[in-house]
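Wait, mind explaining this?

_____
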Amino acid sequence: MSKFKIAKSHSNRSGTRTTSVAPSLDMTPMVDLAFLLVTFFMLTAKFRNMEPIEADPPSSTSLTQLPEKVMLITIDTAGRAYYDISGRGVREKLINRMMVRYPGLKMSQDQMDNFAKMGTFGQPIELLPQYISGDDDLKAALDEAGKGIPCDSTNNQLGDWIQEGYYAFVDDATEQGVTKEQLKLEGLRYAIKADANTDYSKVEKVIDVFRDKQIFQFNMVTNLEGSDSNADASLTAQ
């Protein structure tokens, strides 16, 4: 882009005519930088998956943020349990392990890929393929009519997700060269996020599932006191 300069001529006291040039500013570099930044954010942004559940946890003064390597169990006001675990590679290994544990669970490669990209879900094993392949309307209908992931003593699918999720996380970390010592220091964290209005007996039922899998250290997700947004979710140690 060319620089435009406006020349002005005037006479000084001695009668000599001089010419002054007004300063100009070339905005081309700033515009180029703005487009580069926009392009960068468009290419690197991660879009948030549609969540099938809304849970408003209780408040606390804890400032500990939810870690990246976390297995999160969410419980709504009806006591329904939903599952999520971070890491696409972890989820790829997880669904393969669950297909071995549940031979009746049949999935195509596309369904497995979609599961690896999916976020929180609360469907039983038998409805999972239909849920993954469905559009947003079907998923919403299944979520509304569903009862969450079963966690009864006779059908403890939630416990199987928790156990296989741990093994999938370890397998994925080992493939990436993480040592056992590093896993002890920076391993998978477990968290429970329950709505403030959820009956505690429903929360305790999920806690019992963790205990049954010999997991005794986990965190409760809370909102930062004074905030109305789940974006301020923090952890309270249990």
